[in-house]
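Input record, target 12 of the design panel.
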């Protein structure tokens, strides 16, 4: 072992990388103590934090909150570092099956620790082999710790030490029982272990094969049944997180091709799993994750393509990338100290920290209503305003973003606004606005514009026809043009006329047409309806309106009542 002296501060101020703009995200870049990939992060506090790298470097924070390079073991990819609750005794495990040990808070490291041989299988004739790979380690007390690993050719490796505070600790293979493995089968390997808080004999284990979860409550003394599967992949390295206040509440994260089934949770210790709901369903995400951690009610997971997810309820996660070039960085390890503090390491020695890890982004659009008169008179100005609000805890409404629109009129900003409509009809006022997080909303209000204060009194152009039965039919349509998309009033009226042999009694129903399409049906006099000009109709064009009257007469021919049609037209503004 070589001891190197290299100091990097991780105090709360966390010196940003020179030239980096102030972060808009919850993550702040930290000047890194290494250019090697950071593959292990354990973070209890700013003064109790440890890093491991892809080529055997181990860093720890001193009492002043500064990272120092404490050990270097070339060729060893450090996968996990664990310390006891006093932050005194610790193990670091590597992908080449080595264990390194510290008895002074990580100030110095010794090793590799001598390990027992494991078996090349679980059933039948087996042969001893060296530990092929280790993925994780955990302390359950100052004296008892576990390391786990394996590969696709041997037993799932679980080694236990009951003198983990000794200068030279020893380990025992506790998984290979008299007739079978207590956990898993041949060719499966254990990728993570998490202790159950307050229960020194209880731990959760997860294996490579579809994230199978196992729990022991007797310190690995008896066989364990698999409680469930937490990821949809195999032969990767799923990671596990557990809620210390509820050991049945667990999360798993993995990388690869399992998509949204790489990131799941269970409230039944793995017996039933559900994929995490990614708020807002952001596009282009893979959920290929390499690290996960939970503390103080906050869950953090990170992985490939710069994806970092945070959750404060354990079921809904929010994509919260770092800024700039780090937005697509490959993240490899996560440490969560408490509900607000998290540390993430990644490719090329990249390192970021958050002191607001429990702050979720605002993804909810604001809401509001438009206030103002529902009915106004053509040519008379009316004022409209709005009551707008954002969700509780949201970023707040951006009052500079307000844009009012009405078809055929210039856009307006701010509020209140004033509108004057030249012609009768129905118009839609729209207001589009944002909150300070950029979420957009649009609200609308329909307004009826009448002439002379009343639609019933709007000037009408009339067309009349006489029928041989003794009826005079009159169709009234607006004299003024009608804007596209708005409505207008049509009226069919009738009266008897003196005519020899007249048999007319009354009109008992009317169908109204626009063009050749029937759009309204009326069975009660007065026959008056509101019709709508098609949206997009060309200004200056004519809309044909037809009314077909069904007339009651004395002695109808062949028992059928006659009909009479009358046409007119409306000009589009």
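The sequence produced for target 12 reads:
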């Amino acid at each position: 072992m070589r001891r190197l002296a290299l100091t990097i501060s991780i105090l709360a101020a966390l010196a940003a990388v020179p030239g980096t703009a102030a972060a808009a995200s919850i993550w702040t870049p930290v000047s890194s103590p290494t250019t090697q990939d950071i593959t292990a992060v354990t973070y209890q506090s700013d003064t109790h934090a440890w890093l491991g790298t892809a080529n055997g470097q181990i860093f720890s924070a001193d009492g002043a909150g500064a990272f120092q390079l404490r050990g270097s073991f070339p060729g060893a990819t450090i996968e996990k570092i664990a310390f006891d609750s006093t932050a005194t005794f610790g193990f670091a495990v590597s992908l080449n099956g080595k264990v390194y040990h510290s008895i002074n808070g990580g100030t110095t490291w010794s090793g590799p620790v001598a390990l027992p041989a494991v078996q090349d299988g679980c059933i039948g004739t087996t042969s001893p082999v060296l530990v092929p790979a280790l993925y994780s380690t955990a302390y359950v007390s100052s004296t008892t710790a576990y390391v786990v690993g394996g590969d696709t050719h041997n037993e799932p490796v679980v080694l236990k030490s009951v003198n983990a505070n000794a200068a030279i600790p020893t380990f025992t293979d506790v998984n290979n029982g008299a007739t079978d493995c207590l956990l898993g089968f041949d060719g499966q390997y254990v990728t993570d272990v998490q202790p159950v808080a307050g229960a020194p004999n209880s731990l959760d284990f997860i294996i490579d094969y579809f994230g199978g979860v196992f729990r022991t409550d007797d310190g690995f003394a008896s066989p364990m049944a698999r409680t469930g599967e937490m990821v949809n992949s195999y032969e990767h390295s799923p990671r596990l997180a557990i809620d210390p206040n509820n050991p049945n509440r667990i999360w798993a994260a993995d990388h690869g091709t399992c998509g949204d089934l790489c990131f799941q949770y269970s409230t039944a210790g793995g017996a039933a799993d559900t994929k995490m709901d990614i708020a807002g369903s952001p596009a282009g995400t893979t959920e290929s994750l390499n690290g996960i951690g939970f503390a103080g009610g906050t869950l953090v997971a990170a992985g490939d393509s710069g994806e970092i997810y945070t959750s404060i309820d354990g079921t809904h996660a929010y994509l919260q990338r770092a800024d700039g070039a780090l937005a697509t960085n490959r993240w490899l390890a996560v440490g969560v100290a408490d509900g607000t503090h998290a540390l993430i390491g990644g490719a090329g020695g990249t390192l970021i920290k958050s002191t607001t890890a429990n702050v979720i982004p605002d993804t909810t659009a604001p809401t509001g209503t438009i206030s103002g008169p529902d009915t106004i008179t053509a040519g008379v100005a009316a004022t409209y305003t709005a009551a707008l609000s954002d969700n509780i805890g949201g970023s707040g409404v951006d009052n500079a973003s307000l844009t009012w629109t009405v078809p055929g009129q210039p856009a307006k900003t701010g509020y209140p606004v004033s509108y004057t409509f030249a012609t009768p009809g129905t118009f839609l006022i729209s207001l589009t606005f944002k909150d300070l997080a950029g979420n957009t909303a649009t609200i609308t209000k329909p307004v009826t514009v009448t002439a002379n204060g009343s639609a019933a009194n709007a000037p009408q152009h009339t067309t009349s026809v006489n029928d041989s039965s003794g009826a005079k039919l009159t169709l009234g349509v607006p004299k003024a043009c009608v804007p596209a998309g708005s409505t207008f009033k049509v009226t069919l009226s009738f009266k008897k006329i003196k005519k020899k042999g007249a048999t007319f009694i009354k009109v008992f129903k009317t169908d109204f047409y626009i063009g050749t399409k029937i759009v309204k049906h009326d069975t009660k006099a007065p026959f008056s309806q509101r019709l709508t000009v098609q949206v997009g109709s060309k200004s200056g064009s004519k809309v044909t309106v037809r009314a077909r009257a069904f007339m009651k007469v004395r002695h109808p021919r062949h028992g059928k009542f006659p009909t009479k049609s009358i046409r007119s037209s409306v000009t589009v503004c």
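The two ends are 87 Å apart (CA to CA).
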